[in-house]
Amino acid sequence: MNGRHGDTDVTGIVHEARGGMYVVRDACDRDWLCRTFRGTRTENGDETLVAVGDRVVVRPTDGDAQEEGVIVQVRERSSTLERKRDRRRNRSGEVTQVIASNIDQLVIVASAGEPPLNRRLIDRYLVFSEYAGLPALIVVNKVDLVEEGDLEKELEPYARNGYRTCIVSAESGAGMDQLRSLLSGKISAFSGHSGVGKSTLINRLIGEDRLVTAELSGNSRGVHTTTNAVMLAVPGDGYVIDTPGIREFNLSGITRENLRFWFPEFLEPMRECAYSSCTHTVEPRCGVRQAVEDGRVDAGRYESYCAIFETLEE
Ligand SMILES: Nc1nc2c(ncn2[C@@H]2O[C@H](COP(=O)(O)OP(=O)(O)OP(=O)(O)O)[C@@H](O)[C@H]2O)c(=O)[nH]1
Ligand SMILES: [Zn+2]
Fold first, then answer.
1. Which of 5, 44, 137, 238 has a Cα at 20 to 30 A from 158?
2. Model-level pTM?
3. 142 annotated ligand binder
4. Atom 22 of ligand 1, residue of closest alpha carbon
């Protein structure tokens, strides 16, 4: 693809979205400062018009400033990360907002210590990744603070279920080459709780000369202003997208009825449940609970299931 479309149009990827302005990078690595207009067409129905990760067609506008344009077309998205919107606070009446698109994998960043590994949180993110159909990569940072062997043992239930894990230290650099290879050639959305070292990790990945700035690092945590995702190039070939935390993701499609399907290791033992609609919580002769007792299903994962189940409305 040479990045040309029509006579003067260029195609590119939206790298940044802020206050109605978009930065679009074309195939020649030029950045175009763009707006949308009434004639902007989209292949994504009534979803958010433009999001980070979108492939768009830009029509250059005349003017002194170089590399400015309008977005004339938004290409169909292969995947989206969404968050719920407060209806009272947005005029468009949009219920969900696409915060990033065309993502290849969800990177779940956790910490081995300070704060300690929070498996419940990893499981919540995994439920989201299964529900959204996004392959997950579990990255545990700060391995310099713990015994690596102990950590590997704690992560065994994930490896056993086919989830990829990667143990790193943004500080010492341990495991960073493996992480780079897992990110290579992909658009990866990073998520994780405050303090796990997500910003430090991203800084290290993109190189010291492109430090993550205040807007990116979630400086205004708790305040719902930094909802804009930003895409950053990882040297080598790949992009990372920094996103707001999981609480912002749209989980409204996850119900007590379908939660069990987002725990892949339940699928096999579930066939032995006495009731086809078994929720694996209180029913007698439950195949999943039996599997937990036999050690075929990890008890911690099952506890996460029950905890998430409780938070969902009946
Ligand atoms: N020991 C150790 N500390 C680390 C490592 N990576 C990051 N930290 C420290 O952990 C703290 C939190 O790091 P941040 O990068 O700000 O964490 P964050 O996840 O981006 O948190 P928010 O910015 O609040 O979203 C900082 O004091 C870092 O210096 C690591 O690999 N090992
Ligand atoms: Zn059951």
1. 238
2. 0.88
3. yes
4. 194
